[in-house]
Write a structure and sequence with these properties.
By secondary structure, the protein is α/β, with parallel strands linked by helices. It is built from four helices and seven strands. The strands form two sheets. It has a five-stranded parallel β-sheet with strand order 2-5-1-6-7, with helices on one face. A two-stranded antiparallel sheet has the order 3-4. The N and C termini lie far apart (about 40 Å).
Length: about 180
């Protein structure tokens, strides 16, 4: 068993390019990338109370048990992707032990996790550019849901926990 890896968290606004940035960094550093999008809430967890919590939109408990605990122990592990479109679990992801690991996605710098991170990166994006990217990536119908629901939930989380301000590095959005 190896010691805990150097863990990099990449958080930031939706459509800022977190996934693209983390994927490229993982390729260049030859390290695994774990996506927070695999840990959104299951149907039974999506209560008004939970969604009212800043950062409550992610399954922190499952992430802690299935990722953080084995990760900080330096163990290889597996977890199942939760598909929030289908509201069911999908394929398994195997994460081999590594000296560097990247955790990518909104809510990755939640206070429940960040004591384990060695480096916290925040990707920012101009609001107009954010809307353009979401429209291009998700279409007009889903854009409305982002504007009404997901962006406000993320912004509440960023504000409540000073995510951008507490990051080690703040970068402008990645070109997409």
């Amino acid at each position: 068993m190896m010691k805990s890896p150097y863990i990099i968290a990449v958080d930031g606004r939706c459509a800022a390019g977190k996934t693209t940035f983390a994927r490229e960094m993982g390729i260049h550093m030859h390290c695994p990338v774990i996506q927070m999008d695999h840990f959104f809430l299951q149907r039974h967890q999506r209560t008004e109370e939970r969604l009212a919590e800043p950062g409550g939109n992610v399954d922190r408990e499952r992430f802690r048990d299935e990722v953080i605990n084995p990760l900080v122990s330096g163990e290889s592990f597996s977890y199942r992707i939760f598909d929030c479109q289908k509201m069911e679990f999908g394929e398994w992801v195997k994460v081999e032990s590594a000296s560097v690991v990247i955790v990518e996605g909104a809510y990755s710098c939640h206070p429940a996790f960040q004591k384990h991170w060695n480096l916290k990166i925040f990707l920012d994006v101009d609001p107009k550019e954010q809307i353009r990217r979401i429209r291009k990536r998700n279409g007009e119908e889903k854009l409305s849901m982002f504007i009404k629901r997901w962006i406000p939930l993320e912004e509440a989380y960023f504000s409540a926990f000073y995510i951008k301000e507490n990051s080690d590095i703040v970068l402008p959005s990645v070109l997409l």
